[in-house]
Every structure is written in structure tokens, then in C-alpha cells.
Amino acid sequence: MKVAVFGAGSWGTAFATVLANAGNQVSLWARRESVCAAINDSHENAEYLPGIRLHEAITATHDPSVAVDGAEAVVLAVPSQSLRDNLAEWAGVLPNAVPLVSLMKGVELGTTKRMSEVIAELTDAGPERIAVVSGPNLAREIAEGQPAAAVVACADEGTAERLQKLCHSPTFRPYTNNDVVGCELGGACKNVIALAVGMAIGLGFGDNARASVITRGLAEIARLGTALGANEHTFSGLAGLGDLVATCSSPLSRNRTFGEKLGQGMSVAEIASGTRQVAEGVKSCASISELAHRHDVEMPIAEHVTKVVAGELTPKDMLFSLVSRSAKSERWG
Q1: Per-position b or e across 174-194, b if 16+ CB within 10 A of its CB
Q2: Catalytic residue among 105, 113, 190, 283
Q3: Which terminus of the chain has fewer Cβ atoms in its 10 Å neighbourhood, N or C?
Q4: Catalytic site residue 190?
């Protein structure tokens, strides 16, 4: 099969590798022609995955219509806050009947919509065509061919199973799930928790603080997810706990690294100016906090991270504020 992947950042490129290793032809769309030329000429995306030779079945193009020509699935891997504008730009070329697969892990600013909701709004695609791939998938490890697993979530079981086969390679094991809401919220919220973990590391705190933030962060994610109709069991799986642990534990995680630099005293602007990579949690934390407020869900870690990003709290004040909150039962509901 031919699959179009829109977005030649680290995760889009890595997932293109998964698809190619699974036996597909992949057309990778990149906004910059220089990236396309480098991929086609040297089979390397040196800006995002330097040193990794890409599969011969991956070709890059700057033309959206070329990317989707003959494609039997379209994968969307652009930064979450740019999805709406990109979909408006691609509206005339996206196929009408093929699955649309989101790799994005964010909540839209202003609307607080999940990425699948933005896709549905801009394309008029029904839930049977919109799917989400999420899990503990650090891009560089995936591109290197290290073993990993993920969840393919779609309301339609048949679509999920077809996409599962599409990306099942010798080193990438996808599972199916029908809980799109839970998988998306797990992926978006874990970035915010990773920022908090990174701040703790940057401040010099040890494993106790790190484990406490991860565990209480998972409780926050599960509270929000169940309030929005997700299956609580999703959050103990790959798209919940798995993704959270990988993102909070690895130095390859952009969000954890961003948080570390905040903890070391750098400002949001200073960190952002030094990298082309997007730390989704920095943008989504305000949307996730707003979403929690709308549904009367308590998410103190997310709220504190939002205040740090906005410059209203220092990382040190944030962590001690969280610890000093009033004592209560561990379980909720």
C-alpha cells in the first residue's frame, strides 16, 4: 500500500520508517523543500534524525497533492497547534474515503479540542475514518528499529484492525482500542506531566520526587479522561502509563528536557529559541487546564505547570506548592 505522511519532523519521519518496514510505500510531505531534497538525495532527515539512514521506500515531497496521490491512508504528524491551518490548506487534496490517522499529542488552544475533533471539523470525516496512534514511542528509538509497542485507536474496529496491519513491522507491535478519547488525552496530558518531572530533575531532586509526580500525574490524567467519557482502563495501558513513563523517564523526551531547562533557570523564550523541535506540553498545558476547569476536574500539576510556563510561578515554588497542598485520600471518586 501507499501511505501519505504529512509532517517530516522526528515523529513523522520515524513513523514513516515504521510504515516502510511494514512493507508500504511512503510519501512523506515536508513544508521545506530543503528537507525533501535531503531525504530524497541522501536518505537522511539530518535536521530531525541525524545519522539514521531512511528506508528506500520513503520519498519526500513538498506538494500535498503528490503526497496523497494513490494513498490508501493519510497520517497527520504536524505540531498540534498548527493542525487547523494545515488542514485548511490541504482541504482540496485530502482523499474523501481513506482513514485519517493522527500522531499528534496536544489539545488545541482556544477551542480545547482534541486533534481528532479538529480533523472531524475540518474534513467532515466520520469517526469510522479517524484514528489515533499513541504509546511509548520516542522517535529516535523507533527510527533506529528498537522494539516498541503502540495503540491504534478508532471508533470503528475494522478501521483500527486495517491500520494495525498497516504498521505492524518486525520491531513495532500495535494493539487496537476503540477509546479514542482516552488515547488522545493520555498522549496530550503526559507531555505536561513530563514538564513537571523535568523541572524536578533540573532542580536537583531525586527519584522520590520524580516517581511522585509521575504517579499523581497519572491520577490527574485518569480523572480528566473519565470525566470526558474515556475508559479508565486505557490509562493503565500503552497510551496511558506506557507513554507517561517513557516521556517522563527518557532524556530523548523533548518535554522532559524542556522542563529540566526550566528547572535550571532558563526561561520559556530562551529554551524555545534554541531548538526547532516542538515541546507540545508547553502549548497544551493551558488548554488542558482550561478543559479541566470546564469539566470541574482537579488537575493541580497541570495548573501549576501552566503557571510556570506563563511566568507566574518559578519551578521551585511550583514543586513546593504541590507538596504543601492539603492532605487527602489517595483515591478519588
Answers
A1: bbbbbbbbbbbbbbbbbbbbb
A2: 190
A3: C
A4: yes
β-strand pairing of 148-154 with 130-134? antiparallel
Residue 39 amino acid letter:
I
Q: Which helix (H) or strand (E) holds 318?
A: helix 315-323
| Residue 277 neighbours by CB distance under 10 Å | 17
Contacting residues for 30 by C-beta, under 8 A, at least 6 apart? 7, 8, 36, 39, 60, 61, 62
In the Cβ-directed half-sphere of 152, how many Cα atoms lie within 13 Å? 26
Using 70 as the pLDDT threshold, list the residues of the chain that sit under it: 332-333
Superfamily of domain 181-323: N-(1-d-carboxylethyl)-l-norvaline Dehydrogenase; domain 2 (1.10.1040.10)
Closest CA to 52 of 175, 143, 171: 143
C-alpha cell at 94: 485530502
Burial of residue 67 (number of CB atoms within 10 Å: 0-12, 13-18, 19+): buried
* CATH number, span 2-178: 3.40.50.720
> Which residue's entry shows cell 521551585?
316
Q: Where in the chain are the domains? A: 2-178, 181-323
Q: What is the pLDDT of residues 163-204, one digit of tens each?
A: 999 999 999 999 999 999 999 999 999 999 999 999 999 999
Alpha-carbon distance of 6 to 307, in angstroms, equals: 33
